[in-house]
Amino acid sequence: MGIWSGVKSLFSSNAKPIDDILDKENGLLVRAGGWIDGLSYTDQESADDAKEIILHAQEARKQIIDTVVAHVESTASENTQRSLTRRFTALAIIRVEMFLVIASVVVWPWNSEYAKFIWSVAGSMLMFGAFSAVIIFFFGSYGVGQHIMKPLAALKGRAKGAVQ
């Protein structure tokens, strides 16, 4: 019944719908204007949003660095049977890859087709992926130490110096 009375009021000579549209405090035009004004994105709002995004990114970066450092610290000093087996496997992968590369160079003068085959095995996705994983695992901690930890220590030192 309420819907029909609303539809009927639109077509009646009652001035209520016009008042609802033109009301200066709560009319439809005032509400639509407020909504449109709310769509504008000021420079201050943009700066506030950018500041918030930067803060979240810094927090995320700090968490990632802390996680990587904790992992490196926990695995770098271990000398268990598992770590020895991991090192042996890594050395075996590196030696096989290096042997294939050197063998392709040595075989080239006598049989270039066979040398191309050896080179394709050395450059296959399996061999290159395993070789890359070993290099990243063993030398990645060095990279983290050199390129992340030293600058962080320097920043912490500067921050402590500024406080004192």
Care to describe what's here?
The chain has 2 domains: 25-77; 80-163, no CATH class. It has helices spanning 2-11, 16-22, 28-38, 43-76, 81-107, 112-122, 125-163. It is 85% helix and 0% strand. The relative contact order is 0.05. The protein is elongated, with a radius of gyration of 35 Å. It contains 7 helices and no strands. The longest helix has 39 residues, at 125-163. With 164 residues, the chain is mostly helical.
What secondary-structure arrangement, pairings included, does this model have?
Layout (H helix, E strand, L loop, with lengths): L1 H10 L4 H7 L5 H11 L4 H34 L4 H27 L4 H11 L2 H39 L1
Distance between the termini: 76 Å
Poorly predicted sequence stretches spanning 5 or more consecutive residues: none
Can you give the helix content as a percent range?
over 70%
Number of domains: 2
Number of strands: 0
Quickly give the structural class.
Answer: mainly alpha
Provide tags for this entry.
164 residues, mainly alpha, 7 helices
Question: What is the compact description of this entry?
Answer:
With 164 residues, the chain is an all-alpha fold. It is built from seven helices and no strands.
